[in-house]
Amino acid sequence: MFSNLREDVSKYYIKALSLRSYFIFKMKKHHEKSTNNKLLMIKTYLSKTYIFKAFAAVCIFGISISGCTSKKKTPMETTDTTENELTMLVGTYTSGTSKGIYSYRFNEENGTATPLSETEIENPSYLVPSADGKFVYAVSEFNSTQAAANAFAFNKEKGTLQLLNSQQTGGEDPCYIIASGNNVITANYSGGSISVFPIAKDGSLLPASDIIQFKGTGVDKERQEKPHLHCVRITPDGKYLFADDLGTDQIHKFIINPAANAENKEAFLKEGSPAASKVKAGSGPRHLTFSPNGHYAYLINELSGTVIAFEYKDGDLKEIQTIAADTVNAQGSADIHISPDGKFLYASNRLKADGIAIFSIHPDNGMLAKAGYQLTGIHPRNFIITPNGKYLLVACRDSNVIQVYERDADTGLLTDVQQDIKVDKPVCIKFVP
């Protein structure tokens, strides 16, 4: 509105100056006339000049006022837009048409996504941004020496990644990666190990400083023939690392050395006591999450299709409940997350009745109660909840889409908003801090 006003005022100002020139011309033309007429002309000229000068001053004042007014509104509009936008990264399997990692702007108020960039890297099935958002670390999941951890510099404004370097994991099929302080840790599924990589000052990864190999088997001869590490998580107090072992039905515990870095070469992890927490035979621990208050932990078991609730305190897990997430015995339970308000827990199931099991969380004791079930696209391997809790996004690997669901804050139930994000073989979604 104000830009149009400035244009109109400018036009009138130019006209005023043109008329002033016209009166000067008329005075010269009648220079030979009588003195009386000349005086009259001068008087007229002066009065006209005064009027137009005054008008011009008003115009300039109007331009200044409108300019100041519009400047006050611009920052507010920009801030509002920025506050609603999240930078989103998507990891994929690259056996089809996918190139690797995709970045988007996701609006957490209306649930829409805008593509930003794509980065070529093979099988980035899991990734994590650094705490400051300047770097991204991703696995390359291979059952060979190609298995690697990759470091990228990240431009958050443009959504672009630049590969810094890659390091071999020393364990096949790395499927999970986290960054903690000065180190990056991978869980190597087929290798039955976890690998620790010190972070260099430029954000790149140094060769693995430690590869911890596990031993043992489980009761399922096909799926538990050896250790299968599927997830590593730092506890809310920052003191411990838990590693979920699908192959031996254990959660391994390690004490974290926060001082460990590339320069002092101290070990980042030390075996805890007890070294592991056992769960029911044949469960197949996959992913672990913690309540926002840090008092409870919840484990999704891939093989038994159950969620186990634990009380958590200073490195110890005390089992308090086991509840079914998969009721059709598909042996494909996958991911688990809690809403930001701590009221609801969500667990994904694959292979049969693909969908999300929804549970309410008792505020006093952390116990779960079934609240609903949302059918999704095919093979919901991973999902994420927006920081404001409004949307839940599901990576449906075999449907080649990320589905966007609006979340009811009171009931926890989900509604498909029909704003799918098309991407080939999506298996990991992360928001950049």
UniProtKB/TrEMBL annotation:
Q: Please provide one cellular component term from the Gene Ontology annotations of this protein.
A: cytosol
Q: Entry's Pfam families? A: Lactonase
UniProt keyword list: Carbohydrate metabolism, Glucose metabolism
Report the record's Gene Ontology biological process terms: glucose metabolic process
GO MF term list = 6-phosphogluconolactonase activity
The record, for InterPro entries, names:
Cycloisomerase_2 (IPR050282), Haem_d1_sf (IPR011048), Lactonase_7-beta_prop (IPR019405), WD40/YVTN_repeat-like_dom_sf (IPR015943)
Family assignment from sequence similarity: Belongs to the cycloisomerase 2 family.
Can you say what this protein is called? Lactonase family protein
Q: From which organism does this entry originate?
A: Bacteroides ovatus (strain ATCC 8483 / DSM 1896 / JCM 5824 / BCRC 10623 / CCUG 4943 / NCTC 11153)
Instruction: Give the classification, highest ranks.
Output: Bacteria, Pseudomonadati, Bacteroidota, Bacteroidia, Bacteroidales
